[in-house]
Each structure stands twice: as structure tokens, then as C-alpha cells.
Amino acid sequence: MPIKEDVELGRDVRIPHPELVNLYGCTVGDESRIGTFVEIQAGAKIGARCKISSHSFICEGVTIEDEVFVGHGVMFTNDKHPRATTADGRPQQTSDWTLQRTHVGRGASIGSNATILCGVTVGAGAFVGAGSVVTKDVPMGATVAGVPARIMSAVENMATAASAFISEAS
């Protein structure tokens, strides 16, 4: 069964093809939509009214706030120094690495095929361009693009960001 019993699904979550997703130990907020071929791992949190497009991977340690758009094929990471084995050659276990958390603020949009490296924050209302590789924090309301992602605009999305910030504060 692709959606495990330990998944917490909010009210009116839409998953058009539940047999074609892999969800386990995660939380998905009210009215969110999850596309086909999406994996959301244990401990990941998806807010309300989010859209997670097909072929995306959201790993343990990722928190996505409300009203976030995640485009097709977006990849998150959670390990700064991934290895298959330890220094002595044995297969790496959970205790052999440190989980790095990633946070996506309310109302942010992440374009298709973007990669979000672990340990960063994508600010409320920010836009991440398609194909970008985010290696450091994205300020609230900024637009970033490229490899590595760089700020293209810090003003154009401030209305969205400010609205999200005011909603969170109240």
C-alpha cells in the first residue's frame, strides 16, 4: 500500500492516483494536492492548501508551510555529506549521519526540477526558478534562479511575502 497507515492526511487532501505515490510517516495539511510519483518521507510536514506536483521528492526533515507550490520533479536533500558506507566500509546506518532540516515558508513557489539542498530556509512568498539549485537561504519575497541560485529580484514578491508574514503573526 503506497500510503502507509502512519500518514496523517488533513481534511479534503486530494491524491488522484494514491497507488502511484509513496507516503509514509508524514503529515499533509487540509486541502493539499499530491501528484503522481511523489514520495514524502517520515517526519516531513506539508501545510494546508499546498500543491506538490508529480515526480517530487520530499525527504525527512523538510517542513513546507501553507499554500506552497512545489513544481514537477523538485528534489529536497537532508544530508550535507551523503555516503553509502562509513570510513571503515560498513553500510551507513541512521546513527552515522546528521539530519539537516529545511524549511519552506508560506506562499513560496518552487519551480520544476529545482533542487533544494538541506539546511536552508526558503522565505515566505519567495520564488525559486525552474532548474535552480538552492544552496543557501532565500529571503522572504525574493526571486532566485540559477545554479547555484542567486537573487534576481527582492521586491516584486513582497506583497505576497508580507501577506504571509502578517497571517503568521496573527
From TrEMBL:
Pfam families: Hexapep. One of its GO terms (molecular function) is acyltransferase activity. This is N-acetyltransferase. The lineage of its organism: Bacteria, Pseudomonadati, Pseudomonadota, Alphaproteobacteria, Hyphomicrobiales. CDD domains: LbH_WxcM_N_like. Belongs to the transferase hexapeptide repeat family. It comes from Bradyrhizobium vignae. It comes from the Bacteria. Transmembrane segments: none annotated. Keywords: Acyltransferase, Repeat, Transferase.
